[in-house]
Amino acid sequence: MSINQGLIAELRMEAAATRKILERVPVEKNDWKPHDKSMKLGNLANHIAELPGWINFTMESHELDLATMNYKPVISTSTEELLAKLDTNVNKAIACLENSSDEDFGKMWTLRRGDHVMFSMPKIAVVRSMALSHHYHHRGQLSVYLRLLDVHVPGMYGPSYDEMNMPVAEAAAVAEMS
Question: Cβ–Cβ contacts within 10 Å for residue 69, how many?
Fold first, then answer.
């Protein structure tokens, strides 16, 4: 199997799990955060929805210079907007991966801030670490936020505690949302 096909299969599976958790984000609490040093709920949820876009950025460029980057996050104010952002980024990432060869993944990519090089590594390593593993890390963080907000946490790799211990009628209603 080619590298791109393996990544596409993983991205599709993980995107479905991410979609389940983003469906539960109470966007009316976008400004909530569990600690002064923590990211706001809305920023975290939007970051998660945007992270698949790092795949395109990595594969279509050779570096990112944080000193010249002009990024302004747009925080989704509805669940539909948040899910549309995720779906758009996943679909674009899949299209990008479909057009990437094994050779493309071996090309170098650099993260810098002006003259300071933070790292330079093959694109496959950037996709795995900066796009996918980074995505999963923040999705786990979001599950803790939901737990602290007393929102039922969906299972990512099987049923969650909430799904296993909720009343049958409530479980059926939650399953309809997913």
Answer: 8
CATH superfamily placement of domain 3-177? dinb family like domain (1.20.120.450)
pTM more than 0.85: yes
Q: Please, which residues have CB within 8 angstroms of residue 33's CB and are 6 or more apart in sequence? A: 39, 40, 41
Per-residue model confidence as pLDDT tens digits over 35-77: 999 999 999 999 999 999 999 999 999 999 999 988 888 999 9
The domain spans of the chain are 3-177
In sequence order, what are the residues at sequence separation of 6 or more whose Cβ sits closer than 8 angstroms to the Cβ of residue 13? Answer: none
Q: What is the dihedral of CA 135, 138, 143, 145, to 10 degrees?
A: -150
Q: Is residue 169 very low, low, confident or very high in pLDDT (cuts 50, 70, 90)?
A: low
